[in-house]
Write a structure and sequence with these properties.
alpha+beta, 4-stranded antiparallel sheet, 6 strands, about 35% strand, Nuclear Transport Factor 2, Chain: A, two-stranded antiparallel ribbon, about 160 residues
Amino acid sequence: MGSGLNARAVKKVNPQVYPGPTLIGMSLLSPPCPCGTGHALADCCGRWHAGAQHLHAPDALALMRSRYSAYALGLSNYLLATWHASTRPATLDAMPPGLKWLGLEVRRFQATGPHEATVEFVARSKLGGKAHRLHETSHFVLEAGHWWYVDGQVR
């Protein structure tokens, strides 16, 4: 799993989960971002998922958060599109029915070079009434102006 989110399981996008932002009057309404920043999805990870800033997360931390949100929302195309070609799987398996992502805690973000970074995080989920935690340190690289998830080490 990781911004990585190295789990290779993803469900299909449910448009009722993330219908996208809606314009009502002069205000833009959007559901809260699953990554836990407290910002609206459209103003947070959603801008990297689609639109003018699609696939342009400014750093590894933003990419990791957007990948967690993509797992929570079932955006498998985004997950594959942000996975480095050297480690990207051909496809992602469907998430188990009933899997619910509960939250993300970023423990550490560190630039390890001018074009590399790591993000340590804990992602919580629940399946079949049982709580799960994924503690991972994900590795990212900056190539051709884009950040890519390479791999992750589960702790």
